[in-house]
Design goal:
Length: about 375
């Protein structure tokens, strides 16, 4: 019986675990020669040998026709069923029972997304988007999440169009300023317009976002703790990183609101994924308070035709972490803002994400649950 068997579920966060040569295999030859190798510093425990061994195990499963039947509670990471093989992912989706699933990459952006050579940056993006589209191509339940860089707006638009042609259904962008410019600067209006014209949403995701942590706060006279995966030397999240996850997306979304991007592009839609959502209700209240205070002194604030928080309500959805009190968020901010996600096959998604959400539902209507699990996702993707 599928894990999600009692209603329709759309999963707003899942991943592919890249193999060592995943980007290179999809890159043009001139770009391939310049790409740095896949960095595993954020994984801490993984090595190339570990990944290659997982690939060999997958080949052996395929040769023996072996199907893993405990996807949710089984091994995570590269050892997970469907972590990098598209045929296995189809069967994993059968086991999960989800109607749709966004698929993000995991580590590959470190090879190109901040590269100083724009040919390598955008060539790597194109290779990534080819690879994502190929992984998702033969299962209509899977939605490939491409990547973009706003650094060169014209090239960004070009890669967006090519990504949609390849089959990408949405695009992950860094939630940070672009050089010395706000993402709400008019130079980027061509990008926001293209999102609207193509009818695809933008995604912010944990990873490349505004740096906000001051390193001095970690100089506390104590040994450095393990990261969220339990690794000693990894660069994954620690408690101080986790506490600051929402700052980057708040800065980014605030720019889109008060720089007038959502005003100029009313069809623009987006998702804030794997950055938590418990902060959202108070963020919306603070947006409206800021608008009230500063509309007398700031022309850009005064120019807004709607309540500031309503731009977010119209355009953006958020994924809570498993363990956050989603019922309280819905009661506080409304049912139209939040999305279910599994984070499969990352271990952070836990072995029972539905159960984690359900345990927070007290006096939450079936209609509100349906929005969380299904229709908010559909609305974000422009399917309703």
């Amino acid at each position: 019986m599928p894990y999600g068997n009692n209603r329709r579920f759309c999963d707003a966060d899942s991943h592919i675990m890249e193999t060592v040569d995943w980007v290179e295999r999809h890159a043009d030859p001139d770009v391939r020669a310049k790409l740095p190798p896949l960095s595993l510093i954020k994984s801490a425990t993984a090595t190339y040998d570990f990944i290659n061994a997982a690939v060999e195990k997958q080949k052996d499963r395929a040769a023996r026709g072996k199907v893993h039947t405990d996807v949710v509670h089984g091994t995570k990471g590269w050892g997970a069923y469907g972590a990098f093989d598209p045929d296995e992912r189809k069967k994993a989706m059968d086991d999960l029972g989800f109607s749709r699933q966004l698929v993000f990459s995991t580590f590959s952006a470190g090879q190109y997304l901040s590269h100083s050579d724009m040919d390598v940056r955008y060539g790597g993006i194109r290779a990534h988007n080819r690879a994502m589209a190929e992984f998702c191509r033969d299962d209509e339940r899977l939605i490939a999440v491409g990547q973009l860089s706003l650094a060169d707006p014209a090239r960004c638009v070009e890669e967006m169009r090519e990504g949609v042609r390849l089959g990408c259904g949405t695009f992950w962008i860094p939630g940070a300023p672009v050089g010395d410019k706000s993402p709400g600067h008019p130079d980027f209006d061509v990008v926001w317009k293209e999102f609207c014209d193509l009818g695809v949403p933008f995604m912010l995701h944990v990873g490349p976002n505004s740096p906000v942590k001051l390193s001095a706060y970690e100089n506390n006279g104590q040994p450095r703790p393990k990261d969220i995966t339990g690794a000693e030397g990894g660069e994954n999240l620690r408690v101080r990183d986790f506490m600051l996850l929402s700052i980057g997306p708040q800065q980014f979304l605030t720019a889109l609101v008060f720089d007038g991007v959502f005003e100029r592009f009313p069809a623009l839609r987006g998702g804030v994924i794997e950055l938590g959502a418990g902060w959202v209700p108070e963020y919306l209240r603070t947006l409206d308070l800021s608008q009230k205070i500063f509309k007398r002194t700031d022309p850009s604030v005064a120019a807004l035709q709607m309540r500031a928080s309503d731009y977010i309500r119209r355009a953006v959805k958020f994924t809570p972490f498993p363990g956050e009190d989603v019922g309280r968020m819905i009661a506080d901010a409304g049912p139209e803002l939040f999305l279910f996600s599994s984070d499969y096959p990352h271990p952070e998604g836990t072995d029972d994400p539905i159960g984690r959400f359900e345990r927070t539902f007290k006096d939450i209507s079936e209609e509100a649950k349906e929005k969380l699990y299904y229709s908010n996702f559909q609305e974000m993707m422009g399917a309703v």
